Amino acid sequence: xxxxxxxxxxxxxxxxxxxxxxxxxxxxxxxxxxxxxxxxxxxxxxxxxxxxxxxxxxxxxxxxxxxxxxxxxxxxxxxxxxxxxxxxxxxxxxxxxxxxxxxxxxxxxxxxxxxxxxxxxxxxxxxxxxxxxxxxxxxxx
Length: 141
Prior knowledge:
Helices cover 24% and strands 33% of the residues. The protein contains two helices and eight strands. It has an eight-stranded antiparallel β-sheet, covered by helices on one side.
């Protein structure tokens, strides 16, 4: 059963004029920011103060995004594990594409993530470049 994906305007980041949060079921899973020629899609780390709360297990959320991106786009997509200003880890990728392409891709990734979030996290605490190999999350040096 596929859950409904909602892409909702957001004001979370002061530096991004065009931004959205992506909700599936009862949680916010992703954030999308967009500039003049492209954007970034990242796992959500904190709520907006309104709307659906962020998925409560960041490790599972990061793994679900990594596996979903590899499943839908292939291993050639560069994923980056980073921390926000409060030390919360998030996974992100950037690309040059239209905002409509980002909306379509974000909806597909979010739906796939929702379908696999019951899998146990395989990610240990680390930072740096990430990739998936055969559906398993692997940290690269």
